[in-house]
Amino acid sequence: MNIKYFLDRLFSPIKQRLVLQLWDGDSRHYGTDGNEIIVAIKSEATARDLFPNLPQRFAEAYMAGLIDINGPLTELVKILINGDFHCPSLSLREKAFIALMTLRQKNSISRAASNIVHHYDLGNEFFSLWLGKEMVYSCAYFKSHTDGIDAAQEQKFDHICEKLQLRHDETILDIGCGWGGLLIHACKKYGVKGFGITLSPSQKALTEERIISAGLRGRLRVELMDYRKLPPGLVFDKLVSVGMLEHVGLAYYRDFFSQISQCLKPNGLALIQSIGRHIGAEAPPWICKYIFPGMYLPSIGNIGDAAATHGLYVSDVEVLRLHYALTLERWLALFEENAHKIDNMYGQAFTRMWRMYLSCCIANFRYGNLTLWQVTMTQGLNNHLPLTRAFLYGGNARPC
C-alpha cells in the first residue's frame, strides 16, 4: 500500500484546514475552513500502523510521542469522529482482543472495584489540579456560557437537590458519592442526613476528612461498598447517583435498579445522572483500555426499561449535553494550566493520554453521539409531584 496515496484518499474530503507533515519532509494540505491544524507523523511505520483501527492507533501514537499536533486538538477529533473514512476492517485478531477485553472488564462484584481504582485512585492531588475547588467529577449545570466551573458545580448541586425536593431531616443515599461534594452541600444547605458509598479508597478517605472538617460527622457517613452489598432493609427518602451508571455495565442494570427500588421508601424520589448515547453501547476500546475499564454508555431506553422492571416510574428526563461540553472545556483549560505538574507526577505519555481523553469527550459532546441524561424516577406511581418544572426556576434554592 502506498501510504501517502492512502492518506490523500482519506483526508481529501475534509473541509477543516489540515496539514500532514510527513517523516520525509513532505507536507500534504487538505481543507480550507477554520483554524489550521498541523499533524506531524514522525515515521512511515507510524503512518502504516494507524490502520485499520484509526481512532485507537492515532490516540496511542499521540500518547507515545510518535505524532505531534499543533492546533486545536478538539477540532482534530471532530474530523476523526465525523469524517466519512473508509478504513480497512479490523482484523480477526483485533476483534478478538476487543471482545476479550470487554469480557474481562465486566463489572462483576470481583472486578468492579479494580475498574474503579484504575481511574479514580490516580491520586487526589491529580484531580485537585483541574476539577475545581470541590473536586466534582461530573457534568456541571450552566446558567450562562460564561459561568466558571465552581459556580456551575454549585448550581448542579442545587439543581439536583431541588429536583429531589429535599426537606430537613430527610435521608438520602448517594451511590458513587465521589469526594462527597453533593452530600455535604445537601446536608449543609437542605438539612438532610446522608449516606454515601464508593469503591475508591482515595475518595472515601478525602470524603471522611471533608465531613469532619464541615462538622457533619453525626449527619453524614461514607463507606467503601459495592451497591450490590447494601444491607437489606436499609431505606431512604431520596436517592441520587451521579456519574455512576456508566460504570455499572448493561449486564448489571437489573441489579442496580433493583437496589434503588429496595432502598427507596414508597413514593420516594431518585435522580440518576449519566453520560449516554442515543443508541447504547460500550465505550470505545481506547477509552476502556486506558481510561475507564468496563464503561457502558446507556440509551434512555436502557435506563427506562431497567427501572420499570423494578417498579420505578420515570417522572422527568433532562438532557444536558452541552452542559457537559462546557464542563469539559473548563476542566481542560485547568488541566493545561497544570500540565507541567502532571508531567512531573506521571510523565508526558500520561499527560498526552489525558489531554486526548478530555479533548475526545469535548468533541463527542459537541459534535458526536455523546449526551448527558438526568433522569428522575419514583418508587411506585406518585401522583403528588409538581405538574411543571416551574418550582426549579422560581428563585434561589431553599435553605434548610
The biggest sheet amounts to: 7 strands, mixed
The figure for the number of domains is 2
What structural category characterises the helix and strand content?
Answer: alpha/beta
The CATH topology of the largest domain is Rossmann fold
| Strand fraction | 15-25%
Helix content, binned percent: 40-55%
Q: Element order, helices and strands?
A: HEEEHHEHHHHHEHEHEEHEEHEHEHHHE
Specify the overall morphology. Answer: elongated
Average predicted confidence as pLDDT: 90
| Superfamily (CATH H level) name of the largest domain | Vaccinia Virus protein VP39
Distance between the termini: 69 Å
Radius of gyration: 22 Å
What does this structure look like?
Helix 3 (54-63) packs antiparallel against helix 16. Helices cover 44% and strands 20% of the residues. The mean pLDDT is 90. Strand 5 (171-175), helix 9 and strand 6 form a beta-alpha-beta unit. The chain contains 16 helices and 13 strands. The strands form three sheets. Strands 7-6-5-8-9-13-12 form a seven-stranded mixed β-sheet, sandwiched between helices. It has a four-stranded mixed β-sheet with strand order 2-1-3-4. A two-stranded antiparallel ribbon has the order 10-11. The chain has helices spanning 3-11, 44-49, 54-63, 73-82, 92-104, 109-120, 124-128, 149-163, 181-190, 201-213, 253-263, 285-290, 300-309, 321-337, 339-346, 348-367; strands spanning 16-21, 27-30, 33-41, 67-70, 171-175, 193-198, 220-224, 236-242, 264-277, 281-282, 296-297, 312-319, 370-379. With 400 residues, it is an alpha/beta fold. The chain has two domains: 3-82; 111-392, Rossmann fold, CATH 3.40.50.150. The longest helix has 20 residues, at 348-367.
